[in-house]
Amino acid sequence: MVNQEEMLIQTVTEIYAKISVLPCLKPSMEVNELFTELVLACIPPSSIDVNKLSDEVQGMRSKLIELCGEAEGLLESHYSAILGAFENPIEHLSIFPYYQNYIKLSLLEYTMLARHAATLPSRVAFIGSGPLPMTSIVLAMRHLPATRFVNYDMDSDANELGKRLIAGDGDLSARMITRTANVLSVTDELREFDVVFLAALVGMDREEKARVLEHIQNYMAPGALLMLRSVHGARSFLYPVIDACRDLHGFELLSVYHPMDEVINTVIVARKVTAAVPVNLVDQSAPSGTVAMLPCKCSEFQIFNPLGHGSMLEELALEGQQS
Questions:
Q1: Tell me, what's the pLDDT at 286?
Q2: Which residues are within 8 A (CB) of 304 and not within 5 positions of it... i.e. 6 or more apart?
Q3: Which of the 8 DSSP states describes residue 287?
Q4: Which residue did the predictor score with more confidence, 310 or 111?
Q5: 148-171, pLDDT tens digit by residue?
Q6: All residues at 6 or more sequence positions from 162 whose CB lies less than 8 Å from its CB, including other chains
Q7: MF terms per GO, please (predicted)?
Q8: Pairing of the two strands 313-317 and 123-127
Q9: Which residues have CB under 8 Å from 253's CB, separation 6+?
Q10: Which residues are paired to 196 by β-bridges?
Q11: Which of 81-85, 96-100, 317-321 is the least confident region?
Q12: How far is it, in rounded angstroms, from Cα 9 to Cα 235?
């Protein structure tokens, strides 16, 4: 009898076979239908552990993530160009089909940020902003009206598209700038930021992600917050995974949130510390799909639901637990 995990792998493999032979991943009816089918297959809660997949499936997953990243970039470029043709693109952001997802994700990230920051940030960096820097724009407009943003991306063409979106808005253009740079070349400048956001597709495999995280940790200011996007369960076929217990050396892990709705990305909040804090002080028996981890001395158990619907965040405060 085929179990749910085997059925999921079979479904994803079949969709990958169709996507991998497409001549182009630019938005089209066929491309949109296949990626929609893939996302819908991966959204339902799943206990699948991608680290335990066979080498063959692991290889397929790595290639699929690359294809998803390429398709996402082309989709964002397509809609950024459409928006950039308007006199004031900001007034037309809802044209982008996933705009509401960004509204929800930005609310989630802001709510988690506000719970762990002593004050709202004055300067924020977003690394991997791409041609459609929707997170920066939504955060600046809706949640952080006095904050200055610097968007970093290594693709100059993507940056030109992104800059057009804010050029017609006096407030945003005064508070948001875009710089073309590989994150590994950004050094002392990172110390200027209270919060650093790292996009999900910066670092497409574990080794590259580890190099990026080590670099950011080396140059961020002590006490600054790092906001990360990962994925959980079957969504790991769509984006790279950050293991919050193993990958965040030199950071204090504050919260992890796994959405269970159409918001795909897990959100991780960590704080840069002067000396490394062990990040394995985590209750590994906590229920998957909903858990946030708080490795600090505290005794309360809190339920937190920032989006006001089915997804639930649980904070497990661990009292003096040792690794």
A1: 34
A2: 115, 292, 312, 313, 314, 315
A3: P
A4: 111
A5: 999 999 999 999 999 999 999 999
A6: 80, 129, 130, 131, 132, 133, 151, 153, 178
A7: nicotianamine synthase activity
A8: unpaired
A9: 244, 245, 268, 270, 279, 282, 293, 294, 295
A10: 125, 226
A11: 317-321
A12: 12
What is the distance between the alpha carbons of residues 206 and 251, in angstroms, rounded to a whole number? 18
Query: What's the pLDDT score for residue 40?
Result: 96
First CA to last CA distance, the chain = 40
- 1-274 belongs to CATH 3.40.50.150: yes
Q: Both tokens of residue 10?
A: 């079979």
| C-alpha 89 chain-centroid distance | 24
Distance (Å, whole) CA 61 – CA 58: 5
Q: Which pTM does this prediction carry?
A: 0.85
pLDDT confidence of residue 311: 42
Q: Where are the beta strands (DSSP E) in 134-285?
A: 148-153, 176-180, 195-198, 225-230, 251-257, 266-272
Identify the burial level of 1 via C-beta atoms within 10 angstroms of its C-beta, where 0-12 means exposed, 13-18 middle and 19 or more buried. Answer: exposed
d(C-alpha 244, C-alpha 256), whole Å: 8
How confident is the model at residue 205, as a pLDDT?
86
Per-residue pLDDT, averaged over 254-270, amounts to 93
Question: What count of Cα atoms within 13 Å lies in the side-chain half-sphere of residue 305?
Answer: 8
Count other C-beta atoms under 10 Å from residue 27's C-beta.
17
Written as one string, the DSSP assignment of 174-189 is HHEEEEE--GGG--GG
* Domain-wise residue ranges, the chain: 1-274
Which residue do the tokens 């919060």 mark? 195
DSSP H or E stretch at residue 39: helix 29-42
Using DSSP, state whether 226 is helix, strand or coil: strand
C-alpha 122/C-alpha 73 separation (Å) is: 29
Q: pLDDT tens digit string along 50-79? A: 889 999 999 999 999 999 999 999 999 999
Mean pLDDT of the chain: 86
